[in-house]
Amino acid sequence: MGKIRIFVDSSDELGGQQYKYIAEKSVEDLGLGGSIDSIDMLIRVEEPVFIIIIRYKEVTGKSTLGDASYIDSRKNGIRITLSSEIFLGDALKALWSKYGRDRVEQIGRLEIFVSGAEPEEVKGIKLSEKGYDLESRINELATRIIPEGFRIRNSTKDKGIITIIASEDPIKEEWRVLARRLEGDARA
Amino acid sequence: MHVLKYLLFEGGLYRHERIIEFLEDVGGFLVQKTVVGLDLIMNLAVPEGEHERLSAIVSELKGKLTPAPLIGTEIGVVAPTLSRHHLPHPACDIAENLRRHGAKTNIIGLSRGVGQKIVHTTIKEKELIEEHDIAVFTLGNFEKCLMKKTKLFAEIEVPVIVTGGPVMKSIPGAEAYVGGIGRYPERARTGESIEKLREVSRVAGEVVEQRRREMDLDPLIVDPIVVKAEIERQVPESTEALSPNPVTLKIDGVRVKLPYDDYKDKIGNVSIGDKKLSEFAVIKRSLMRNYILVKVLPKSMF
C-alpha cells in the first residue's frame, strides 16, 4: 500500500488540520488505503465552499475470485492470495457462504486458507453480483468527509479523479475555475 | 431539610448491604445501583454531616468514594444531526463520560443543526431539550461556523455547555464552552482526548452545583429524591419498567418512564407527608415517548 498524500488548504488552520485527520480515518474505515493516491481539500468557511479532489487507482472490474487472486494448492486445502485488499470483504463473504465459516480462515492481510477445497471450483466463485464498485465507495468517502451543512454539490469525474465542490449557496463559476486548477495540481 | 451530598461508590458486592443500612439509618438515599459481575457501582445521596462516617465504612470494605455532583441530573447531549458525521463520535463519548460521573444522559439529534444558514432549533426540539437539567451541544471544528450556530441554543432556558474544535474561552449564549472536542471520526482513545471528555464532565458538575446553589435561595417543597423514593414505593410498576433508570432523578423533579395516559393519576395520587404529589408538583406529558414528567414546585409558590 502506497502512502496517501493528503493536502488541506483551509482558511481556518486548526479546523483544516482536523479535516486531514477525518480524511485519514475515513479512508481507513472504508478500507480504501490501497486504492487512493491523494486527497486534496480546499476549505473556505467564510464563503462558504469546500472542494475535495480524490485521485484514485482505477480498478478494472474483477468479477471472479480467479481474476482477483492467485490460488495455489496446499496440503488439505488451498491458499488464496488476493491481488488487493479491496477484494477481501467480498471474497470472505463468498467463501463463507459456499464453505461455511469453519473451513475458511484468513491467515494474513491478503491470504485466505480454505480447507478441503479444489482450486478449480474456487476460481469460478463470483465475488459479487455487481462486480467491485470502487466509485461508489470513493463517493461515500467524499460524503463522509464533506461537512454535512454543505448540501449543494457539484461533482465531476475524470479518469481516476473525482472532484466535488460543496457549498450552502449555488455553485459559483470562480469555484469551478479554482477546482479545475487544483485538479491540475493534484495530477502533477 | 438537610443538605444532601452526592457520592459515587465503586467497590465489590461483598457486604455492600452495610452501606445501604447506613443510608437508611441516617436518612440518605440510594439513587442508582449497577452490578457488573462482582463489581458494584452505587450512586448515593448522603446528608452532608454523615460523609465521614460513610467514608470509614467504605474504606473498611476496600471501596472507593468520590464526590459526583452529576448524580441526580439528567443531561441532554445534543448533536447537530443524527448522521454519521456527528454520531457516535463525539456525542456518545461525551455522554459516556458524563454517565461515569453519575449523570443520566439522553442523546438528541436535531433535524436542522447543520450549515450556517439553515441552522435552527424547532420549538419541539427546544421543549425536548428543556426537559433536561442541562444540555451539552456538540459542535464542529470551524470557529466561524460555531459563531453562526449560537442561535441553536440562544433561547434554550436550561444551562447550556458547548463543545467544539476551536480553542476559545466562551461562546455567546452558553454557560460554558469546552474547546478541543470538535468533529472527530473515531473513539476518544488518547490520554489527551479522554482528558477533554473529563473536562466536559467537570464543567457540567460546576454548572449543576451553581444551579443547585441558585435553587437553595428558593428551595423545592420536597427534595426530588424523596419524590423518587415514594413513587417507587407506592407505584411498584415504576420500578418494573424496562427502560433504563425507570424513575430518573432530576434537579427539580423526576421523569417516570411509564405511559402518561395510564399512570398520570396514580403518580399524582402518591402521598408525601399529608399532601398528594399533584398538589405541590406539575405533572405533565414528556415529549420523550409519552413518559411522565414531574416538576416539584418551589416553596415561594405556596
Describe the structure.
- The complex is a heterodimer of chains A (188) and B (302).
- Chain A is of the alpha+beta class.
- Chain A folds into two domains: 5-59 and 133-187, no CATH class; 65-123, no CATH class.
- Chain A is built from six helices and nine strands; from the N terminus they run E-H-E-E-H-E-E-H-E-E-H-H-E-E-H.
- Chain A has a five-stranded mixed sheet, sandwiched between helices. Chain A has a four-stranded antiparallel sheet with strand order 4-5-7-6.
- The longest helix of chain A is centred in the N-terminal third of the chain and has 17 residues, at 13-29.
- The two termini of chain A are 20 Å apart.
- By secondary structure, chain B is an alpha/beta fold.
- Chain B folds into three domains: 4-67, Alpha-Beta Plaits (2-Layer Sandwich), CATH 3.30.70.260; 74-214, Glycerate kinase, domain 1 (Rossmann fold, 3-Layer(aba) Sandwich), CATH 3.40.50; 224-301.
- Chain B is built from ten helices and 15 strands.
- Chain B has helices at residues 17-26, 51-60, 91-100, 123-130, 143-148, 191-216, 224-234, 237-240, 260-268, 277-280; strands at residues 4-12, 29-36, 39-47, 64-67, 74-79, 104-109, 134-138, 160-164, 176-179, 247-249, 253-256, 271-272, 275-276, 281-285, 292-296.
- In chain B, the strands form four sheets. In chain B, strands 6-5-7-8-9 form a five-stranded parallel sheet, covered by helices on one side. Chain B has a four-stranded antiparallel sheet with strand order 2-3-1-4. A four-stranded antiparallel sheet of chain B has the order 10-11-15-14.
- In chain B, a hairpin with a 2-residue loop joins strand 12 (271-272) and strand 13 (275-276).
- In chain B, helix 3 crosses helix 6 (191-216).
- The longest helix of chain B is centred in the C-terminal third of the chain and has 26 residues, at 191-216.
- Chain B is globular.
- The mean pLDDT of chain B is 93.
- The A-B interface holds A 12, 14-15, 18-19, 21-22, 25-26, 29, 43, 45-46, 48, 144, 147-151, 168 and B 80-81, 83-86, 114-119, 140-145, 165-167, 182-186.
